[in-house]
Amino acid sequence: MGSSHPDSISVERRDNILLVALTREAKRNALNDGMVEALERVFVDIPDGVGAVVLHGVGANFSAGLDLSELTERDAVQGLMHSRMWHGALEKIQFGKVPVIAALQGAVIGGGLELACAAHIRVAETSAYYALPEGQRGIFVGGGGSVRLPRLVGVALMMDMMMTGRVIKAEEGRPLGFSQYVVDAGQGLATAIELAKKVAGNARMTNYALMHVLPRIADASQEQGLMMESLAAAIAQSAPEAKARLRDFLEKRSGKVEVK
After folding, report:
1. Which residues are catalytic?
2. CATH number of the domain residue 222 falls in
3. Residue 35 CB contacts under 8 Å (≥ 6 apart), including other chains
């Protein structure tokens, strides 16, 4: 499977992995409304048999954020609807059908950082850097960044970035929560694909629970969280795929956890 969208998105299928690329390289993959709407269509219509998605940017940057050249004056209602359009699209990524691994390099700023935060695993090359310049431009994040990013790095750090224009580089950003992995230049996409293959090999219900249930457990009270955990565990272990995997392990047809 391979396709492209006029809004500078390309899609390629490799076995059970779907590669979704931002291909607006001349604009540093800056996001316009057409691209965001195209991303939503892609993630709504994930083909059967795909177990994971790799989201990446073509060229030197993941995404330099919202394309400000296309920013028009909006009244409050139009601004609200524009923000909610972004919310709907990124919701399809975070709470979609399959896990998403983002490969990050160069600029991961503004709306690009908001997009990256919707992924489940982030792999950053050493060239990646994170920023939220909205504070210096007199605007506020509108693509879900104020909800997702504090869950990853904390309210205080996001406030610092927006107030002062602070830029966080890849190595500094990994222990802060911007990414789970940092790799050498040019290795981000290959690493993301390798991780996606591992993720796609998991039981579908386990991945679903991790994507849809675990975040809600983290936001719930302890009593509610424990109940959701019990329900998710009961459903997952009752699936035929889980039973087959457990039999394989008990009958020594699958490997044990090893430290490499």
Report:
1. 114, 134
2. 1.10.12.10
3. 7, 8, 9, 22, 24
